[in-house]
Amino acid sequence: MPMDLHGCGIGLRREFIKQMKPMGFKPDWLEVTPENWIHMPYEYRELFEEIAEEYTLAAHGLSLSIGSIEPLDKRFLKELKTFLDRFHIKHYSEHLSFSTFNGGQTYELLPLPMTQKMVTHISDRVKQVEDFLGRSLILENASYYYVPYSEMPEVEFINSVMQKSGAKMLLDVNNIYVNSQNHKFDPYEYIKELDTSNVGYMHIAGHLFYPEDNMIIDTHGEAVRDEVWELLNYTLSHVNAPVMLERDNNIPDLKVLKKEYKHMCKIVKEQGNV
């Protein structure tokens, strides 16, 4: 069974898992959210096991809370490692954010202060996670709507985290676009300044603009916008890495997602990427 990522992937969702085989839809690889599958309902278990045998899987988590000042949740890490080992999942990614507070999950990806102290803190925790899981950790640039106290721009912070921690990067193109519009920076200059030598793979997704607040929200519930496709095309001229289509909310019929997936693959192939 292949384990390395290549080409184009899509996020596996329960809403269409039963449609894939009858439709003959065969992405190059699939991304799963471990928190949604660790205790999977019995009705999906056999099908999920078949898919895990056929496809390369990547895991993209939601609750690691790598930037939290609270101790890592060892019970969760143990469940996570069991899941990753059971389904031979080599690639595990999380968000460059925090999601725990006072011992509880906020169920939100909250922004971190972009400081040298936080760079060191995250790097120490990355090593703990990697030692426990026996895998490299991949960190995603997250969307954010509030900027805590910071000593450096976002792109410098991300470069510093990746360099000091040794983690790989999950480059989310939509998040770059969303942040650039909400916080007034040039997304193309951001890509130029970003150290892309350690990108493990990339995300593309949809968002919504709220004119009353003059703000873009990273919803993952809409089709990818033209301006994000354009930014992906530009990014692929700088980064040679697999790309994955995310859709977490308002999930349409698989035929609609398949069409969007094929459009993404066309852009990837035109750039001559993996």
Strand order of the largest sheet: 1-2-3-4-7-8-9-12
The CATH H-level homologous superfamily: Divalent-metal-dependent TIM barrel enzymes
Biggest β-sheet: count, sense, barrel?
8 strands, parallel, barrel
Structural class: alpha/beta
Provide mean pLDDT, rounded: 95
Overall body shape: globular
The CATH class is identified as Alpha Beta
CATH topology: TIM Barrel
Structure overview:
By secondary structure, this protein is α/β, with parallel strands linked by helices. The chain has a single domain, classed as Alpha-Beta Barrel (TIM Barrel). Helices cover 40% and strands 19% of the residues. The protein contains ten helices and twelve strands. It has helices at 20-23, 34-37, 42-54, 74-86, 116-133, 154-165, 173-183, 187-193, 226-236, 254-270; strands spanning 8-11, 29-32, 57-60, 91-95, 98-101, 104-110, 137-140, 168-172, 199-204, 208-210, 215-217, 243-245. A hairpin with a 4-residue loop joins strand 10 and strand 11 (215-217). Helix 5 packs across helix 6. The longest helix has 18 residues, at 116-133.
